[in-house]
Amino acid sequence: MKKAIGIDIGGTKIAAGIVSETGELLQRAEVKSDVSDRELMFTRVVEAVEQVLKDASLSVADMEGIGVGVPGKVDREQGIAVYQNNLPWAEFPVASRLREQFGLKNITIDNDVCMAAFAEWKHAKGKQDETFVYVTISTGIACSIIHQGSFFRGAGFAGEFGLIPVLSKTAGNRLERLEFVSAGPAIGKLAQSRLQTANLTTKDVFEQFQAGASEYQPIIDEVTDNWAQGLYSISCLLDPHEIVFGGSVIANNPFLLELIKEKLKAHQIPEQQHLLNRMSISTIKQDNGVIGAGLRGFEKI
Which domain holds residue 41? Predict the structure, then answer.
């Protein structure tokens, strides 16, 4: 069985996994990020790789390559992490540094959402003649588009779903970026403001809502309506065949999917509503970034 290493890099943690050609996650390890310094951050990446190899009793020589998912903008051809808002890696040569460290030629880097999307597309057995969209709702909001088997990247910044403006009650019925008013941290802040209760977390909001606390209903309504507005833009512009949702906010609260469908349907005309039957929540959840990166690690440079 051929194997590759997948690395999913974030501002809080770095996950590394050993992945088979079929997308099976054979081993996984995780270490904390160190965003205080670019070299210390790279050291943690190396530690994650060494740890997963040790746990699996394997060596780098057993691997076909390494795939790396990095937040923000990347230069895939040169293997450079160009810009991130949560890492100290501006213009950091990820691929060349990993080649020096581990001696593997095949090093592929891409945006972390693209890596997760690739895993979801493979898992969903996406068709080559269709348009597939992966949407992540977590600390941030973003999406990745796979059209006819290839990523749609535009001029390099396509998929920034969180930047779409929505008509937000939180912003006083003004247009505001979706991520600013409806990503994970924004939900907790909204609840604190509306309920005049300090220290409410996003997790608390969903737990209280599911427990039947009626004061949380308007908060859930507002957030899901914001998401539906953004999704309607995707529906109109791309008319995708399928959308899969990931990210901790929605993956940990699957009841949200039906609320989203209900609100999205209210925006759509009948010719667009085919999408409602092909919207789902990821079943590989927090492992999709590692698996997608691992699968991309088999690419020959």
Answer: 3-111+287-296
